[in-house]
């Protein structure tokens, strides 16, 4: 793990330990950094924070304030969710969360003292918790597998299907993420493997119809850090996304 990234993880772990104290149950790293395909130029740092009791509004604002300060010195994106351990012990889908922070919400947190993304439910959490459970790295506390039962397959599947349902439109503006994400969803359906975007792409270039392999290879190369020279037409991208979604639906 890169020294600077390790320093960021240590800093955020210390922040949550200080702010949450005895209410903190565990901190878990998931996503590309946990699965060995982190790209410092484009990947986010993804965390799951588990607490024993609900957070107060004051406590949430303190955490957000401190995170904003620390995030200013980072080049990587940051995303984390704070959830109650009772929602892991008796899993609920979509999953309730106490607090969510990401680059998408960052500006709102900066400019609006009253803004909080929390107290709602999130379909994406089932897939994030599953990855943290099976392939994550424990930064604080005990491993998830020692504390909670695994997420049922039907919830993980519902979560990843929700993530790709808008693929034909989203692939135009975010082709790398959507292309590789579609591959890893189909890989899971066919083989039951929990994979990273890189692993999904590597599988796609050997298992998808030959007419799509160059497209996947080009975005896999870009994801891995190659300078992008992709000239894929929007129509080709939409056609690929439609093919993948139709295949996914047929094979569920």
UniProtKB/TrEMBL annotation:
UniProt GO MF annotations: aminoglycoside 3''-adenylyltransferase activity
The record's section on InterPro entries has: AadA/Aad9 (IPR024172), AadA_C (IPR025184), NT_sf (IPR043519), Polymerase_NTP_transf_dom (IPR002934)
Q: Which UniProt keywords apply?
A: Antibiotic resistance, ATP-binding, Nucleotide-binding, Nucleotidyltransferase, Transferase
Q: Which reaction does it catalyse?
A: spectinomycin + ATP = 9-O-adenylylspectinomycin + diphosphate
Ranges where the Polymerase nucleotidyl transferase domain occurs? 17-64
Specify the domain of life of the species encoding this protein: Bacteria
Q: Where is the Adenylyltransferase AadA C-terminal domain?
A: 147-246
The protein's name in its UniProt record: Spectinomycin 9-adenylyltransferase
């Amino acid at each position: 793990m890169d020294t600077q990234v390790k320093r960021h993880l240590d800093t955020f772990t210390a922040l949550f330990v200080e702010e949450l104290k005895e209410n903190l149950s565990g901190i878990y790293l998931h996503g590309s950094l946990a699965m060995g395909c982190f790209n410092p130029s484009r990947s986010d740092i993804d965390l799951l924070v588990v607490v024993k009791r609900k957070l107060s509004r004051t406590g949430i604002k303190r955490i957000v304030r401190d995170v904003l300060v620390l995030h200013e010195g980072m080049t990587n994106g940051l995303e984390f969710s704070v959830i109650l351990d009772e929602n892991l012990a008796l899993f609920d889908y979509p999953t309730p969360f106490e607090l969510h922070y990401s680059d998408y919400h960052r500006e709102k947190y900066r400019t609006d003292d009253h803004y909080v993304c929390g107290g709602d439910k999130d379909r994406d959490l089932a897939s994030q918790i599953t990855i943290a459970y099976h392939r994550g790295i424990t930064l604080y506390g005990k491993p998830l597998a020692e504390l909670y039962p695994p997420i049922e397959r039907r919830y993980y599947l519902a979560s990843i299907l929700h993530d790709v349902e808008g693929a034909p439109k989203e692939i135009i503006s975010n082709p790398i993420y959507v292309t590789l994400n579609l591959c890893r969803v189909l890989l899971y359906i066919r083989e039951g493997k929990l994979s990273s975007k890189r692993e999904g792409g590597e599988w796609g270039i050997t298992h998808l119809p030959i007419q799509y392999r160059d497209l996947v290879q080009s975005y896999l190369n870009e994801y891995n850090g190659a300078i992008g020279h992709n000239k894929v037409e929007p129509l080709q991208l939409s056609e690929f996304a439609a093919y993948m979604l139709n295949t996914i639906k047929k094979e569920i």
